[in-house]
């Protein structure tokens, strides 16, 4: 498991998406963690200090796993970049539910079927 | 595996699950480009909620959910969720006492 800084993690995530575009999947998991062992956490609790939690993000393509931990300060920025990456890569999803599937117009239909049928008066 | 069909129900239940046990709840996303499928899973190792989709519309909703989870996880389970601010304002804002509007 490779632990990276948020920015290199995002770069690796991008390349993972690109590699898995033909076949394979990409898993991304989000979990809250303080990154400290239970003993340390208990000590901090008794000492009265607030435990700083971070968001652990893990990504894998089935073979390689990468991870990063995002704190409160970085999370807004990370969130924005992460959203951009997802939007850029999740292109295989259907744009719109096709109501009539009579004719198969081919596999790649971005805006194939006429959205607005021109009404001929 | 419990597949939930309604998006809103999935969001509500997963947030509840997280707030009940923030230590062990995790949120996973699996994307398969070759099949054009997206599956979301939220579990606390006891209960599991899943949502599956093939539409880009749901992917946008998933992005919002990502934001919610990032906020919850980084700031704490009691953090203000930006989406919650839009829908549920009942808890946050108590009834405002009018300052003598009624004449």
TrEMBL record, chain A:
Question: Oligomeric state and partners?
Answer: Heterodimer with SRP9; binds RNA as heterodimer. Component of a signal recognition particle (SRP) complex that consists of a 7SL RNA molecule of 300 nucleotides and six protein subunits: SRP72, SRP68, SRP54, SRP19, SRP14 and SRP9.
* Database matches in PANTHER family: SIGNAL RECOGNITION PARTICLE 14 KD PROTEIN (PTHR12013)
Compositionally skewed regions (Basic and acidic residues) per UniProt: 103-115
Q: Where does it live in the cell?
A: Cytoplasm
State the similarity comment: Belongs to the SRP14 family.
Top-level division of the source organism's lineage = Eukaryota
What are the recorded GO MF terms, alphabetically? 7S RNA binding; endoplasmic reticulum signal peptide binding
Q: What is this protein called?
A: Signal recognition particle 14 kDa protein
The opening ranks of the lineage are: Eukaryota, Viridiplantae, Streptophyta, Embryophyta, Tracheophyta
From TrEMBL, chain B:
Pfam families on file:
SRP9-21
Tell me the superkingdom of the source.
Eukaryota
User: What is one GO cellular-component annotation here?
Assistant: cytosol
Molecular function (GO) terms for this protein are: 7S RNA binding
Q: Which InterPro entries match?
A: Signal_recog_particle_SRP9/14, SRP9, SRP9-like, SRP9_dom
Q: Does the keyword Secreted apply?
A: no
One of the GO BP terms on file: SRP-dependent cotranslational protein targeting to membrane
Localisation: Cytoplasm
| SRP9 domain sequence ranges | 5-66
- Alphabetic keyword roster: Cytoplasm, Ribonucleoprotein, RNA-binding, Signal recognition particle
Q: Where is this region: Disordered?
A: 81-103
Question: PANTHER family from the entry?
Answer: SIGNAL RECOGNITION PARTICLE 9 KDA PROTEIN
Family named by the database record: Belongs to the SRP9 family.
Q: What does this protein do?
A: Component of the signal recognition particle (SRP) complex, a ribonucleoprotein complex that mediates the cotranslational targeting of secretory and membrane proteins to the endoplasmic reticulum (ER). SRP9 together with SRP14 and the Alu portion of the SRP RNA, constitutes the elongation arrest domain of SRP. The complex of SRP9 and SRP14 is required for SRP RNA binding.
Protein's name in the database = Signal recognition particle 9 kDa protein
Native species: Trapa incisa
């Amino acid at each position: 498991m490779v632990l990276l800084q948020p920015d290199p993690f995002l770069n690796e995530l991008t390349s993972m998406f690109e590699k898995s575009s033909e076949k394979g999947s990409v898993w991304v998991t989000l979990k809250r963690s303080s990154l400290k062992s239970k003993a340390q956490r208990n000590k901090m609790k008794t000492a009265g200090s607030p435990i700083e939690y971070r968001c652990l993000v893990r990504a894998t393509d089935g073979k390689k796993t990468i991870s990063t931990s995002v704190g409160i300060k970085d999370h807004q920025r990370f969130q924005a970049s992460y959203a951009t990456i997802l939007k850029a890569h999740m292109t295989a999803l259907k744009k719109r539910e096709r109501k009539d599937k009579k004719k198969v117009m081919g596999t790649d239909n971005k805006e194939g079927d006429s959205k607005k049928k021109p009404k001929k008066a | 595996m419990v597949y939930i069909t309604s998006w809103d129900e999935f969001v509500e239940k997963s947030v509840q699950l997280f707030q009940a046990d923030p230590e062990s709840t995790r949120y996973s996303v699996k994307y398969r480009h070759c099949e054009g499928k997206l599956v979301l899973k939220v579990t606390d190792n006891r209960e599991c909620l899943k949502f599956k989709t093939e539409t880009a519309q749901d992917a946008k909703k998933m992005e919002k959910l990502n934001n919610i989870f990032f906020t919850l996880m980084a700031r704490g389970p009691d953090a203000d969720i930006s989406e919650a601010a839009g829908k549920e304002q009942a808890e946050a804002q108590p009834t405002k006492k009018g300052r003598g509007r009624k004449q």
